[in-house]
What we know:
The protein is α+β, with helices and mostly antiparallel strands. It has three domains: 1-150, no CATH class; 156-226, no CATH class; 231-334. The chain is built from eleven helices and twelve strands. Strands 3-4-6-5 form a four-stranded mixed sheet. Strands 9-10-11-12 form a four-stranded mixed sheet. Strand 9 (249-256) and strand 10 (259-267) form a beta hairpin. The longest helix is centred in the middle third of the chain and has 20 residues, at 187-206. The chain is globular and about 60 Å long. The two termini are 38 Å apart. The model is unreliable at 81-86 and 88-121 (pLDDT under 50).
Amino acid sequence: MRLAYGTWAEVVPGEQWQIWEAVQTQRARSVLAMSAEGTALDGIIAALIHGAPVPKQSWTIELITGVKHSRHHSRCKVRAVGNMAAFIKNAFGQNRRPSHSGAGTPIDPNSPSGINENAPLPQIREAIVRRSSRTFPPEAFTTVKGMRVLRWDYLCVELLARHPARDAVPIVDWFIHEQVKQFDRDRPSVEASFRNILLRLEVILSGRKDSRGSRRARRNLQLISPWAESPGESLMRLELYSFGFPPPTEQYEIIVAGRHYFADFAYPGKNLALEFDGLTKYGNSRETSQQALIKERDRERAIRQVVSQIERFTWQEFHSGSMRARLRQLRDTYFSRGHPGRVLA
């Protein structure tokens, strides 16, 4: 499929997020090929190339060139050409499913398949290419899938400094999870590794010249965690923070009949656990929806033996806004009524 003049992509019909990933990956590869030597990918597109799940799809391609550009050349567009409507209709018409990040096709409870067949079809938009002349040391770059990108730790700092918390924190959480998953939820080991990661990010942050972005990054550093096992859990934690909840115990361990279970968020003193039903956990892509559902039911039954009050939240509630009303009610019930909450950077 032709995406722009001189830019083609091999796209297999599938879910919306799969087509977005294929389109943006090929666009990034083509833009790099047309750029000066030494140009690297930055921002959301770099995270995508690293393999991170991106909760908010962006059509922007950020580049680091190390060379100053005029205002006109620092931002340009990779224009989509041709009639893609037929391809998109074939790709999504009969086989649409909600995406793994919850941002897919809306669910229709009255439809036998559960899919809203009248939902608007996704569109492939023009790609905004942003070039930056920021400089980094040679060790800040690596090669992934044949493309030059910022290394994960430098990329985390840039995401926290230049993107809203709700866009950056889930991605940074994924990078941190990749570093600590070898410890298999051993709390002392995970927390020790996380402290070392924070020190590394602080060292990188101290070398930034953008004071405004550095202040934003330091605020957002307080929001990241090594315990998130899905983008939904990261976003859930941010909602708890914004509503003024005290810090929860994440991945709270519960042992029942010799088996170990973990609640996403727990307040043991309040006999309260909060669960985000993203179903898909990092590294569990081979697990079917039915297997995940059965596993979740067994897990909830075990958790209720220790924590009687379990509140479950879904992607649909997150996107509709009903999650916020429920969280406000929980805050007023279990914690100080009328807490002003906090503002995310």
